[in-house]
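User: Teach me something about this protein's shape.
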Amino acid sequence: MRIPDPLERHPIQGWHGTAYLRAVVNDPRIEVGDFSYYDDSRGPEHFAARCVRYHFDFVGDRLIIGRFVAIAQGAQFIMNGANHPMGGFSTFPFGTMGFVPGEPHGEEGDPPRGDTIIGNDVWIGREAVIMPGIRIGDGAIIGAHAVVARDVAPYAIVVGNPARETRRRFDSATIEALLEIRWWDWPVEQIMRHVAAIRGTDLATLRKAAREIGG
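Assistant: First, the predicted structure itself:
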């Protein structure tokens, strides 16, 4: 049995538009969990340059992506470097553009909103936009072209601009159980063995699989 490799550049045979992000991202400011992938017909290896915007060293924020995250073409992660000053009459970055000699970069905008954190088993649709400092919970779905400006709860579905939650994928008890089971943390061999339970809808079967591996 062949075990999937999270460092494999192109996991889909015959298609180079999908890549596991760990194989193509080498920026220490971007942390990616195993088996999270980006799909882009223009070349998924350009994820950091095309999708992670305004990610400046002097700001110091990180993009943290969990395991088994699916990211569609053109998704945008707007980092804290995009912030402009909003407390005065003008939002123009005078210091950054050289109008205020000696003023360090990154001192003009609103205070950074922290790291952007994407949970596990999240699906991010085509050209969705994630604003700075957002936290997206495990199992959430972000609709295509959604603009996410507030945190997203686990297993929520959000769509639109600004993104609004339309519903939760499961009832509260099921969500609580899934967050406790955390199948994405299982050893790869056990995930492969129990794929039917993971992508099924029988919670008892998934709980049984978790007990078998001590999860």
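Now, about its shape. The first strand starts at residue 18 and ends at 20. The chain is about 20% helix and 20% strand. If you'd like, I can walk through any region in more detail.
User: That's plenty for now, thanks!
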